[in-house]
Design goal:
This protein is α+β, with helices and mostly antiparallel strands and 151 residues long. It has two domains: 87 residues, Arc Repressor Mutant, subunit A; 57 residues, Dna Ligase, domain 1 (2-Layer Sandwich). The chain is built from six helices and five strands. Belongs to the Fur family.
Length: 151
Amino acid sequence: MAMVDGRYAHARELLQQHHIRMTPQRNAILKILVHSHAHPTAEAVYNQLKTQVEDISIATVYNNLRLFTELGVIQELKYGNEPSHFDYVSVRHFHVVCQQCGQVVDVFYPDLEKIERLVTNLTGYETVGNNIEVYGICPDCQRRQAHLDAT
């Protein structure tokens, strides 16, 4: 819990550096993003908060997600025609995405910088970051498919 509290404090500090006022709605949205490992959509954030936070609307959620993304506090993850998912960016990582159910899982790989250096060496580009996504079928969907195939 202390690590999550530290991540939350860091996120609030980033917002304060940009002179962003912490409204109750903004605070609640930020807490969900910092505590979540599920990469929620805007609708999932709204559904989690609509009975707990006064004066929250889906527009408020979208506006704050856009603000947090622009400031680099969170990352917007877009997968085809699926609704965007949002990820609190605390440690560099990449994602594996299930092509059947859309579940997104963080993968922490210590050598992401090596990949960026390789890209620089191969292309001459000065890299400023990355957004690596690997696609596959999650274990739950594999089990469901195996069950369907067996029947």
